[in-house]
Amino acid sequence: MTKYAMVVDKARCVACNNCAMACKMENNLPIGVHWNEARTVGGEEMYTPAGTYPDALSMEHYTLACQHCDNPACLAVCPVEAISKREDGIVVQDNEKCIGCKLCMEACPYEGVRTYVDGEPQFYLDFAVGDADALPHHPNVVEKCLFCVHRIDRGERPACADLCRAMARFFGDLDDPDSEVSRLVASRDYERLLEGQGTGPNVYFLS
Length: 207
Hints:
It is built from six helices and ten strands. By secondary structure, the chain is an alpha+beta fold. It has a four-stranded mixed sheet.
């Protein structure tokens, strides 16, 4: 069996949002739609630390997207079965089935990982960018990260992992003990977001 996971090294991540830009281009995301974004845990503004200078400052970064959970809350509430979980663990969504009811957004404990496309999708350019195999976009649906399944099915990695300038993102098969992600999780301290919710997220943040 294969179980895909994303591992993010917080010690390397600088919140440059290159992962978000790579995702947006690769998947030809509409205006106002982001499937991935960097967030700063620290001060009130992005890239600002909490505490007082010089001894008590603290700041760290997380990149937030769909967690591709073992027990996705979104799957249980979708009334039209637009959400499914592949055998490799990736949680995918069929936007041709989605009716835009937003129940998945309400059920998901990870705030901001889904975007509702209100009306006809709008784009900055009058032609599509990114990968020709990326999924098309539809009006009045909810969208989210798909781990770039079109790339996965070709034996490639998600665009965000390939284009991270800080080399902070790792993607692979967690069930393979020899994979890079397995070795990192086994050798480093890590956290998973909102583990207490029982979702079983498959994004690991290395300390």
